[in-house]
Design a protein that fits this description.
8 strands, mainly beta, 4% helix, 89 residues, single chain, 1 helix
């Protein structure tokens, strides 16, 4: 199991590569982030996704979003949000 802490601005950032690993993405600090999956290693087009806030209980897991590459981005400009990404399996 490995945990990374990543700064996230308003551009999509890939935080989980590939389809096989289980993961937990949670907001470490900042306001809100949005997460989504893609079938390829190309960044998503558009702004839709699963919103993670500081008031969320838990975070986002493979069981919630299904297979794919996982991407996150901050919802507001200014200071970047910080996410914690833990992968295993």
């Amino acid at each position: 199991m490995a945990t990374q802490v990543r700064d996230v601005a308003t551009a999509w950032v890939q935080v989980v590569v590939g389809f096989s690993s289980d993961f937990l993405v949670s907001l470490y600090s900042g306001g809100k982030v949005v997460a989504r999956t893609t079938d390829t290693a190309d960044p998503p087009i558009g702004w839709e996704g699963h919103i993670i806030t500081s008031r969320s209980n838990g975070g986002l897991t493979r069981d919630l979003v299904g297979p794919g590459y996982v991407w996150v981005r901050a919802l507001s400009r200014g200071a970047p949000a910080v996410v914690a990404v833990t992968e295993w399996g």
